[in-house]
Specification:
310 residues, Rossmann fold, 2 domains, 6-stranded parallel β-sheet, 6-stranded antiparallel β-sheet
């Protein structure tokens, strides 16, 4: 998959694609439907995704709480697995934000990227002040010479599938509901970082991962699936993880600590993908380390049973 980050410098080999447009945060079932429509719109054209980095919401409200379901790297990896050939990951800046709807359609889609056909959701907005709507894009496409398909919003159980609804499910600790909308377990991806090694002292050495910039699911303990993506220990494992601030040990920055079952080896610096399968309990502060270890033993047994049944 080729990644193009500037619409003003696009090679001829990266022009002529059909692209789905959006932020694709989480790459959920609604996104998959839009991508499938783009794939089918012009079957002989390369399949592309037009998205933005940073997320426009981050650009306009940089001090707002983290909300993203996945990093740009995780999104790119997921899109590549879906067969996307061109990822137009445009830098969202003052210049792009100031384009009128017509300028975006003409300068970015038509002249800049040279797209043959685009697919957008029915709630798509674009251009300065989000003034352009999906119907406006269809009209511009007809005038400028590129095709436009407007995809209906996807619903499950009378509720619209959206990144907002997925965040709500994650905040409530409802991993099954989030997974149903995503089409896969919610995952946290990233390298293993150095922690304070308290888990090792307790008999539970953990792989620590940052959740900076990501929406925080409900704090607590989870049954997890662990994919080690590189290195001599590459493969899939079961485990139990704690997501939160570790209240037993004072005020700490929130992160994800995963104990990988039946594993021996060094994972520092190794990229992992950890799927949150089931929220077992919330964070607790115990009266003693012995009480904490007893609970960790129980959490591990419960997680093993849940994961064995998948």
């Amino acid at each position: 998959m080729r990644i193009i980050r500037d619409y003003q410098f696009v090679s001829e080999t990266d022009r002529g694609a059909t692209a789905a447009i959006g932020n694709f945060d989480g790459v959920h079932q609604g996104h998959l439907s839009v991508i499938d429509m783009a794939r089918a719109a012009v079957p002989d054209a390369p399949l592309g995704i037009l998205t933005f980095e940073p997320h426009p919401r981050e650009y306009f409200a940089p001090d707002a709480p983290p909300f993203r379901l996945m990093s740009s790297e995780a999104r790119a990896h997921r899109l590549e697995k879906l067969g996307v050939q061109c990822l137009y990951e445009l830098g969202f800046n003052k210049g792009l934000a100031s384009l009128s709807p017509l300028e975006f359609a003409r300068d970015v889609i038509k002249d800049g990227l040279g797209l043959r056909h685009v697919v957008v959701g029915a709630d798509f907005c674009f251009g300065k002040g989000r003034a352009g709507k999906a119907d406006d894009l269809a009209r511009f496409g007809q005038e400028l010479g590129f095709g436009v398909t407007i995809a209906p919003l996807m619903a499950q159980d009378a509720h619209t599938v959206s990144s907002t609804a997925i965040r709500a499910a994650l905040s409530a600790g409802d991993m099954a509901k989030a997974a149903k909308m995503l089409g896969h377990w919610h995952r946290i991806d990233g390298p293993v970082i150095t922690g304070e090694q308290r888990g090792r002292e307790l008999g539970y050495p953990t792989a620590n991962m940052s959740i900076d910039g990501l929406h925080q699911p409900a704090f607590g303990v989870y049954a997890v699936l662990v994919d080690v993506l590189e290195g001599p220990h590459s493969g899939s494992y079961h485990g139990v993880a704690s997501l939160g601030v570790r209240p037993m040990f004072g005020e700490n920055k929130a992160n994800l600590e995963t104990f990988v079952f039946d594993f021996k080896g060094d994972l520092y610096g190794t990229p992992l993908s950890v799927a949150l399968v089931q929220h077992l309990r919330g964070e607790e502060k115990f009266d003693s380390l012995d009480a904490l270890i007893t609970q960790m033993d129980a959490d591990s047994l419960q997680a093993r049973a849940i994961l064995a049944a998948l």
